[in-house]
Design brief:
This protein is of the alpha+beta class. It is 40% helix and 22% strand. The protein is built from 11 helices and 9 strands. The protein has helices spanning 3-17, 24-32, 36-47, 51-69, 74-80, 86-97, 101-106, 122-129, 164-168, 174-182, 246-263; strands at residues 142-148, 151-158, 196-202, 205-215, 227-231, 234-241, 271-273, 280-285, 290-299. The mean pLDDT is 91.
Length: 300
Amino acid sequence: MYEWNEMVQRMVDWLEEHLTENPVLLKMSEQLGYSPYYCSRQFNQYTGMTLRDYVWTRRISRAALELRDTDQRVLDIAVKYGFSSQEAFTRAFHKAFGMTPAAYRKSPRPIPLSIRQEVFSPYHYWIKERNRMSEVRVKSVEIKVEFIPAHKFIGIWDIGAADYMSFWNNGHSCDEVCGTLESMSNHVLPGQLAQTAGWFYRNGKKGYLYGIPVPLDYDGPVPEGMECRVIPESEYLVFHHPPFDYLKDNGAVMKAVEDTAWNYDPKAKGYAWDEETKQDYQRHFPEGYGYAVLRPVRKV
């Protein structure tokens, strides 16, 4: 039923590894064993974008990060990502972000980068493999204490959302928000994941947040539609599961961590919850970090 979700995801994966190659469509179709026309049609149906537009937006976004993070010449970056000249690259960059590559390199600011498409999810995997799946490999949830210094958090606080899915279904554009935050990844608070979600509390009600933690002395621009708030220093109880297979085990791992986090008595470690003026954090990077829920605490 979801075979083409998986196939289009394979297209996305292939494109991400070969963005600097030409001609992209012909090479990809040969690799996957389908005609260029069929690949192009299915890609558009499942992503909502033409393959050409997707490659263009991903190339210009990758190029923007290299402008920000390296000293390579603008011309070399332009050629690397398939532009015929520095002038063509400048026109494309200005069309995408409203400024020239030279201006962006001199003074980087939040811009709406194009993010990698995900069309084959753990749900699709479960539907495909539900009759053949063996026992899920969930490890013990580790509980530890972590100190996070006072910092700022740039993002969106939505009191009308309770979790990840309801947040994005509540009028926020995942592509726009995540792409803009990706352009700010060079400002992330040391020791923290770049894009971070979580929960906050207001007048006894729990809402959901999404954004990026940055150092306390950050004084740069804040993207339109987002806020910048100061978060006090605190110790956190971290409920962590190590790296896992996202497609196969995501649901079970998240359930194990959250069941532990929301039912744990902090007195066992000499703490009490301290969530009135602080916020919970949710770290989700399956292959590199794993999954964790962080809840602020104070000594008792």
